[in-house]
Amino acid sequence: MATEAEGSIEDRVAALERALAEKEREAEALRLELTRLHVVELRKANDAARIFAALAEHTPDAVVLASPEGDVTHVNGAYHRLFGSDESVIGTPLVDALRPGDASAREALYAALVDGSSYRGTLTLRDGSGAPLPAQVDCYVVRAGPEEVLGLAAIVRDLSEEQRAEVERADLEAKVITSQEALIRELSTPLMPIAESVIAMPLVGSIGDTRAQQILEALLAGIQEHQAETAILDITGVSTMDTSAANALIAAAQAARLLGTKVILSGIGPAVARTLVELGVEMRGMTTKSTLAAAIAEAIGRKGVARR
């Protein structure tokens, strides 16, 4: 009986040892798997860190990292290209490293970092030579949780080229507008040589104060350029004849006469004639014709008479 009991105990001990060994193998396998997973995750984290580090080094924007206390721990190559290669920036306060150009810029950055928020806006900084540097600045607190601050970060984008391009675009637009205005003036006051020393200016649309001045300038310039003895102002296409338009025509005729040029006003229909009478426009010294063709015939016939 004793032998059977001893054998039973030995069997139980052996079974327990086998079970313990199996548990140890399982625990070792689990430890190895956890180690493998940890290594994989660590490798992924390291790869991601290297990728972000490469991005930070190759971005054209200046990147500045600082400790939770606000001291600079790292700057990328773009920072040195933008602000100079002074290595003493490491350990300096983040706001000083950004080199704000005035007190308001400094206060804006400090306020964002002190209250733990962020700042994004356009500021004037100072480059490596101390010259003004327009820049877009993103400055923020990096957190691992609501109460855990990992550090501070800032990204600076140089806006100098954009501003120069904007100035160039504005200059180009101004030149285009000036050119268009000149073209519009030419189209609104077209002047055509009809024959030797005879010019004609057909007018279309309404005549306001600005256009009246343009008509006068174009007529006098045309008289001088073509040495005109006769100038025809054709108002067939003038939409309305009011006091402003009538005064413009009278002023043009008077100025032309001072240069020794005869003015013929053509395109006067019944409605325009009645309006001129009602306005009390003095037409003395100005020949009038109902059509442009009649005015041209008058001007050319006058030249023929003068030659004979």
Give structural attributes.
308 residues; alpha/beta; Beta-Lactamase; Transcription Regulator spoIIAA; 3 domains; 5-stranded antiparallel β-sheet; 5-stranded mixed β-sheet; 9 helices; rod-shaped
Topology:
Layout lengths: L1 H57 L3 E5 L5 E4 L1 H7 L10 H4 L5 H12 L3 E9 L5 E14 L2 E11 L1 H29 L3 E4 L2 E8 L3 H18 L3 E9 L4 H16 L3 E5 L3 H10 L7 E3 L2 H16 L1
Helix pairs in contact: 6-7
Can I get a quick summary?
With 308 residues, this protein is an alpha/beta fold. It has 3 domains: 1-58; 59-158, PAS domain (Beta-Lactamase, 2-Layer Sandwich); 189-307, Transcription Regulator spoIIAA.
Can you describe what's shown?
With 308 residues, this protein is of the alpha/beta class. The protein has helices at residues 2-58, 77-83, 94-97, 103-114, 160-188, 209-226, 243-258, 270-279, 292-307; strands spanning 62-66, 72-75, 118-126, 132-145, 148-158, 192-195, 198-205, 230-238, 262-266, 287-289. Strands 2-1-5-4-3 form a 5-stranded antiparallel beta sheet. The protein has a 5-stranded mixed beta sheet with strand order 6-7-8-9-10, sandwiched between helices. The longest helix is centred in the N-terminal third of the chain and has 57 residues, at 2-58. The chain is rod-shaped and about 150 Å long.
